[in-house]
Structure formats: structure tokens, C-alpha cells
Amino acid sequence: MHLHPQPQPIAASDDEILAALADIETPPLLVAVASLTGDLSILRDDLRPSASQSFDPTAGITPEQADTARRIAADALGRHRDAGNPSVTRPDPPTVRALLDFMAGTSIEDDYAELMTEELAIAGADHRAPDWTISDIGDATFRVAIVGAGMSGIAAAYRLGQAGVDTVILEKNADVGGTWLENRYPGCRVDVPNHFYSYSFAQTSEWPQYFSTQAVLLDYFRACADEFGIRGRVRFETEVLEAAWSDSDQRWEVTVRTADGATELILADALVSAVGQLNQPNLPDIPGRERFEGESFHSARWDASVDLAGKRVAIIGTGASAAQFIPAVAEQAAALTVLQRTPPWLLETPNYHDDLSGGARWLLDHVPEFANWDRVWIFWRSHEVLIPMATVDDAWDSTESVGLMNDLVRQMFTEYYRVQFPDPELFEKVLPRYPPFSKRFVRDNGIWARTFSRSNVTLDVGSIAAITPTGVAMADRTVHEVDVIIYGTGFKASNFLTPMTVRGRGGRDLHETWDGEARAYLGLTIPDFPNLFLMYGPNTNIVINGSIIYFSELEARYIVESARMLLKAGVRSMRVRPEIHDEYNRAVDAANTRMAWGAASVNTWYKNASGRVTQNWPFSLLEFWQRTRHPNPDDYILE
Ligand code: NAP
Q: What is the pLDDT of residue 53?
């Protein structure tokens, strides 16, 4: 995959150009073409999308307006061709602002405009790059150890590298990619559109689909690691066993196990945990699990050596992972029994498995910046609009929704189930009875219904009593005799940073300090654990909107700016003030109880054993951006 592909010159005829644009959404199309050609006159007022954000897939654009917009865009591209395909100049800030305002259908708030300009990163502009380097400040010996070479670790290594900070990346696996390396189950793909689920600083127009497969995502992260010179800084097959803060030396002492089984001590001035939230498989405590005599494995440890063809297979779980591999297994197994405890909410996504259309491919090949504009279009269309739909109304009295807007979503989603599952018995089994957005939704293009209509697939929604040596015994005494059991049972998400041991000031143990209640300030810093930064830490997961890469990029910026704060102050350490950390966490906890995922009683990996939401960010995407632009020195004890 190429991160900055060169545009191909337009040679197509006028009719061919117009035909290519036939299914392209017009707001990002018009601004991409205006940006390419510099002709802002094509942004006609009568072609603006509606300013209101809503679920309306047309954004208020009528078919007639769309036709006109495509013709105007095609004409402009034809003129660009006739002018000899001049090279693109980066639009100046007022032009970018005008383009963003047109696309949003309104004059957007200044902070949002700045945020979106960063996300857009048009023509290679990198607004989140540090505007300093370590040589400006002096202490070139400052070294950061990053644990994990997945999506977050690569972002941190890139940004720290831009500032000239020495980094070493400690990776337990033999390659980069993290979750995209480990989750190789059939059907694995991203569920946030690629043009948004990618780094702002490494955009590409080469995604083959809107929701690409695991192999494509892994290829992307490998390309980033290679192109940015990160791979050479990674110590592969090097697992962190313990990280301990030395009070006397004011630095981290990191004990690792290397590929040959030896242990080694690595010293670092700051430590970044980029280990993700979903990497410790959860194997359920079902009696008899160890006695099963067939093959069994967890989805994140997929055993490709087990040939499922002709086998009787049971799958436990119907979460986001299982929903992706159940259809694939159904095609191979002789008989598949799906054991569902809680049904997922399906989000209708007709193009979920589709390749980009020929027209979209043509446009991206000839106007690669369309990918950038599509990215901010996706962002704008989904950024905060969904939050009210997941917000609790205290006066609302239902276990199936948390408020009127949430209930309207429930009704809309339910209609999709009615169409997909005409069999009333199956409909009753698959329809969730908990509020939408209290769990992660599952994208669906009709494959869920097609899978359960197969003659070799059985859906059992009873309680599992035990695993026997030859199958799964249910509480109602049904026994499913199977050859293979696949656990799609999720991860021990609340056990942040396990199985590492992390010791802070005075030798205190992080997991004892947390005692099951993982917390951090902005998800990033913890009192008494100086110079430790968590990426994708507590309460930085999102359920309904945004992309987790957005959070990681902002966390990386905060870490780089923290390094600057430390170095400029001429001190060795920073640790968050306990009162700042505690007050922040009280606000997060209170806000999470106001959201569907905090209020609903349904099981989720978002909550820990005590029922507190340890994973999710309950505020707006803008607020995370605003709060992480720079560390506030008043929040920290610097010494
Ligand atoms: P999950 O959402 O936690 O789902 C686990 C499933 O296992 C649930 O259906 C759960 O049922 C079931 N389960 C757990 N213990 C069980 C038991 N003892 N008996 C019966 N059933 C049991 O885990 P996941 O599917 O791996 O997904 C985790 C997260 O990973 C997602 O929410 C998403 O954020 C991310 N993910 C993303 C993608 C993507 O498309 N990019 C793909 C996969 C995963 P209950 O619901 O009743 O607990």
C-alpha cells in the first residue's frame, strides 16, 4: 500500500467523467474538486448539504441537486484535464475554511474547523506535527520506551520521532500491527470506514473497500512502520515483564524477556503503554472447559491449522468478533451451532463487504484528495450527532431504550430486523431487548439473516450449563455434540496493562493501586506513576462515534507536548496531581451513568466487575481534542 499515491492525469472524456461520479456523495465531491481546481465558484449555495446533522443519508440533497452537483464537478474536472492536469497546490487556510463550511452546510465553530483541518491534512499538511525538536531544548539523551507496536505505538513513535526524541519500541510479537496482527479470524475487517480509520498523517486513497479486511489493515500499519522508519526502532519478540520507576534515578527501569528467553533491563526517562484494551482473551468460566477433547480456540488466537470443513462446530458468543466469523465458519462447517447469550444490535450497512465502485476508484486515482475530504465528511456526519441518541432521559421508563431519541433508533433498527427475519421465531431470538448503543453495534449487509437461514446453522439462545468432553451441555439438557468449539467471548478489557507489573513511586504496584478500578487522568496519566503515559487507557474508548485512531493521535500529541513541558522546565519528572485526577474521574463516572452504555443493565466489556464503566469516553470528540492539545502545567507536580 502506498501512503501518498501520485494522482493519475485525467484523460477520460466528459461523458466518462460524469459516469464515474454517478454514485459519489456530492458534498465531499464538490469540495474535493474545488480544492483540486481552485475553482470555488462550483460551491453553489443551492448545492449545500443540510446544516442539521442527522441520520438522513442524503444530507438533505435531492436527486436533482445531486445530478446538478455531479455535472458541475464533471465540467470542472474536464477543464482541469484540458488545462493539462496542473499539479495541486495546497489550499490556504481561508480556502480550507470555506470548503469545510460548504461541506458542513454551515459556518462551523472555530475549534471544530481547526480540528477538522488537522483531520483533513490536505496535500500532506501535517498540523499535528510537533513545532519543536529536542535539539531546540537541549537534552538529547531523553529517551522514551513505548510498549507495543500496534496502532497507538506507531502513532507515538512517529510523533516523538518528529520531535527528535529517542524512542525504543518493545513489542512482544514478531511484527507490528497489534490487534490487526493478532486477530486473523476469517471475516475480520474494520467497522469504521477506512478513510477515517487511518492516521491523518498517513492517508491513502488506495483502500480497496470502505471497510477493508484485516490483511489490508495489517498491510497499512506495516507500510506506516516502514515508511516512517519505525520498524528499525522496534525490538520484536521482546515482552515487558515489569516496569519500575526508580525514585533515585528518576527514570523507568523496564525488564523485558527477549526472544531467546533471557531477561534484560532497559532504561527510559518516560514510558508509554500502547498495549491496547483488547488483547487478553477472555475464556469463560464454564465448568468442564478443560475437559473438552476436540479442538478449541479463542477468536484472537485463531488456529488456522484446524480444518473446519466437514466438522461440527460450536461458537460461543455473538459480539463484534463472532458476528464477523460466524458467517465464514457457516460456509465451511458441516454443522454450526451458535450459542448466543445476548443478541447484537445490527446496523444496516449495505456496502459493508463491497469493493469501492469503479467510479469511486476512478475518482480516488485521479483526485486522491477526495480521500481526505471524504474523511472529514465521514467525521462531520458522525462526530457528535449520535450522542443525544445514546443519552439517558431520567423521565424515560423502559428497559429497552433510555430516552425518546434512543427509542426512535430502537424502532428504526427493529424495522430492519422485521425485514431481515420474517420468521417470527427467529425474529424473537435475534432481536435485542436492551437499548441500542449500550453495546457496540454490528454492521450488517444482510449476512446475519442469510447465515441463520442456512440449513447447517442452529441458533441456541439457552444457557450453557457445561462443556463436556464431546460438546456443550445446555441448562435445558440439550447437548450439542461437536468437534470444535470456538470462543468469541471477548477480552479481559478492564484489566488494563496486564500481565505487566508496573511499579511507581515508592515501589507501589499499579494493579494493587487500582484494585480493579483502572483510572487515569484523560486516560493518560496516573498519580504516583511519574512519566508514565497510557494510550487507549481507561475511559478513552468510543461506542458510537469517531475512530479510535483519532484518540490515539491526540494522545500522541499530548505525550510529545508533555516531553516538551518536562524538558523546557528542566525537571526530570511529572506526575498528575491526585485532586485533578480524582475530580476528572468523578466527572467521567457521572457522565457515563448518563449514557446508554452506563445506564443499561446489559453485559458489556465496557464495565468492570463492580459495574463501573472503565472503558468509555462519555463526552464529545471535540472535548478530548480541546483537553489534550497541551498538558496544563498546573495539573502536574514537576520535579
Ligand atoms: P465482546 O463484544 O465482549 O463479545 C463477547 C461475546 O461473548 C458476547 O456475545 C458475550 O455475551 C459472549 N460471552 C462471553 N462470555 C460468555 C459466556 N460465559 N457464555 C456465553 N456467552 C458469553 O467481544 P468481541 O466480540 O471480541 O468484541 C470486543 C470489541 O472488539 C468490540 O466491541 C469492538 O470494539 C472490537 N471489535 C471490533 C471489530 C471491528 O470490526 N473493527 C471487530 C471485532 C471486535 P454477552 O453479550 O451476553 O456478554
A: 57
